[in-house]
Amino acid sequence: MRIMVDTNIIISAMVFKSSKMNDVLKSATKQHELCIASYSIEEAKQLLNKKFSSAKKDISQFFEDYPYTLIEPGADGSVPLVKIRDEKDYPVLHAAITGQVDVLVTGDKDFFEIKIDRPEILHPLDYLKRYDKD
Length: 134
Fold this sequence. Notes:
This protein is of the alpha/beta class. 43% of the residues lie in helices and 13% in strands. It has six helices and five strands. The chain has helices at residues 7-14, 19-31, 38-51, 59-64, 90-98, 124-131, and strands at residues 2-5, 33-37, 69-71, 103-105, 120-122. The two termini are 16 Å apart.
């Protein structure tokens, strides 16, 4: 299965050292295919520079622990595929849909209001309960 994580999962694992978020990343890399939108990587870099400058860890170094498939934006992201309340979240959703991701793991409540068949949108703990086999 292709598992995409949202920016909030990356930041929680990297900055706050959340064991659950690191469990999500480990599970996705060992048992599935971890996918990350290029938008999420750029957003994470911006957040680190702006809000967490004390966390000087290079994001490239962080991802050496978690091999992943980079999902680039689809050909035409200007035409919305689905509606989402916070337009800033749309690039992640668009990448998940066009990148044929099976599961999008996020803590962002706006994603849970979306009614789509694929990707399945799960909270990190729900993902671990359902798809972590260790």
